[in-house]
Design goal:
Protein name: DUF3192 domain-containing protein
InterPro entries: BamE-like (IPR037873), DUF3192 (IPR021534)
Keywords: Signal
Shape: globular
Distance between the termini: 72 Å
Strand content: 15-25%
Structural class: alpha+beta
CATH topology of one domain: Beta-lactamase Inhibitory Protein, Chain:B, domain 1
Helix content: 25-40%
CATH architecture of one domain: 2-Layer Sandwich
CATH class of one domain: Alpha Beta
Length: 126
Amino acid sequence: MKALAAGAVIFTSVLTLQGCLIVADGHGDNDWSTSDFRKLEEENRAHIAALSAAATPETVRATMGTPNFADRTTIDGVRYDVLYYRTHRVEGDGNTTRDECTPLVFEDGKLVGTGQLALDRIPQQN
């Protein structure tokens, strides 16, 4: 008897949803997540553009929050910290990847540059 009642509920639900189309592609102008990402990216770009040479990883985190990604390595006694903050969209999939972020490069706790050029200047570890 319970199985029959459950089947009736499912059948009725399917009939009422017939012809219903739900679109959630993440590309609409009214999509709150896209809007939030755009706002975050704009804020991050503004913060990065305003960074001073005296910036440290701690002051950046205090201003910009937790980075999307962070790396640390020591090469020949020099510590390199790289903080990645989302600044642009590559794929509209709702996930943040490193290629959608701007790297902030710190050498022994001091900002030495931003972007791919600064990242490329970190010596390769042998």
